Amino acid sequence: MADAKIIDGKAFAAGLRARVADGVAALKASHGVTPGLAVVLVGEDPASQVYVKSKERALVELGMNSFDHHEAADMAEADLLALIDRLNADPAVHGILVQLPLPKHIDTQKILARIAPEKDADGFHVVNAGLLATGQPGAIVPCTPLGSLLLIRDTLGHDLKGKRALVLGRSNIVGKPMAHLLLQADCTVTLAHSRTVDLAEECRRADILVAAVGRPEMVRGDWIKPGATVIDVGINRVPAADPAAGPGKTRLVGDVAFAEAVKVAGAITPVPGGVGPMTIACLMLNTLAAACRAAGAPIPAEAAL
């Protein structure tokens, strides 16, 4: 059997960003509205700073407004809530993203709940989660599951009816919304996790396997149904494979043992270069969709699930 097709998330994300840029230009021309995203970063976590800079750069590249709020690590919870209230009331802000993790003295759930659901660019608000879970229109979908679904459809076609799908991981950010998206696509869905009995056998039944459990290379090649589509959401930093790389050197791996899985699967996302680039592209898509809703304009087809 030939090796699996490698799903190029970087290339698909570039195409999606180009389509978003076209949508931004069209909204400006038709309604005089420029989509705007407010990115709130509290503290100086190095990884968060990198993520925020990449998001802000993408906004500018696509012709959107970027409202940057970089706050001190000792910012009071009440002050952060007041900032979100101001952003909720600002008509130029169509999406709000609070970069996680927040400092320990701030209640993350209280902060996320304060964001207006229609401006919840990350799709984490309980209202958006409820709309998605019940199949109602208007839900803002978390970016990583949305990006994963777009890659699945690009690989298998839009019609996923009757496919057996297994989602490994039950987080509110990826696992649960991913399962709901696949259910809406008429897949037969199993939501599994680290305590699932005979997990390997459950995985072997899946035509579509989405791994989002946060354990390096947990899913082995013999867990995968021959010809299955494998979406690896995991981003895990492990010691470099080559000792010559030097002490402290690391590499990124997914939740799937790629070298084994690529010999069994029909298609698979690599790590890095698979789902990762889709997350920021879908954040841009969510921001455009929120601006379109606010302006009474049609939302992009890829956000209309």
TrEMBL record:
Keyword annotations: Amino-acid biosynthesis, Histidine biosynthesis, Hydrolase, Methionine biosynthesis, Multifunctional enzyme, NADP, One-carbon metabolism, Oxidoreductase, Purine biosynthesis
This enzyme's EC code(s): 1.5.1.5, 3.5.4.9
Pathway participation: One-carbon metabolism; tetrahydrofolate interconversion
Domain Tetrahydrofolate dehydrogenase/cyclohydrolase NAD(P)-binding: 142-293
Annotated InterPro entries: Aminoacid_DH-like_N_sf (IPR046346), NAD(P)-bd_dom_sf (IPR036291), THF_DH/CycHdrlase (IPR000672), THF_DH/CycHdrlase_cat_dom (IPR020630), THF_DH/CycHdrlase_CS (IPR020867), THF_DH/CycHdrlase_NAD-bd_dom (IPR020631)
GO molecular function, one term: methylenetetrahydrofolate dehydrogenase (NADP+) activity
Domain Tetrahydrofolate dehydrogenase/cyclohydrolase catalytic: 7-122
A Pfam family assignment: THF_DHG_CYH
Record-listed NADP(+) binding positions: G169, R170, S171, I235
Gene Ontology process terms (BP): L-histidine biosynthetic process; methionine biosynthetic process; purine nucleotide biosynthetic process; tetrahydrofolate interconversion
Protein function: Catalyzes the oxidation of 5,10-methylenetetrahydrofolate to 5,10-methenyltetrahydrofolate and then the hydrolysis of 5,10-methenyltetrahydrofolate to 10-formyltetrahydrofolate.
Family stated for the protein in its record: Belongs to the tetrahydrofolate dehydrogenase/cyclohydrolase family.
PANTHER family: C-1-TETRAHYDROFOLATE SYNTHASE, CYTOPLASMIC, C-1-TETRAHYDROFOLATE SYNTHASE, CYTOPLASMIC-RELATED
Protein name: Bifunctional protein FolD
Annotated organism of origin: Azospirillum cavernae
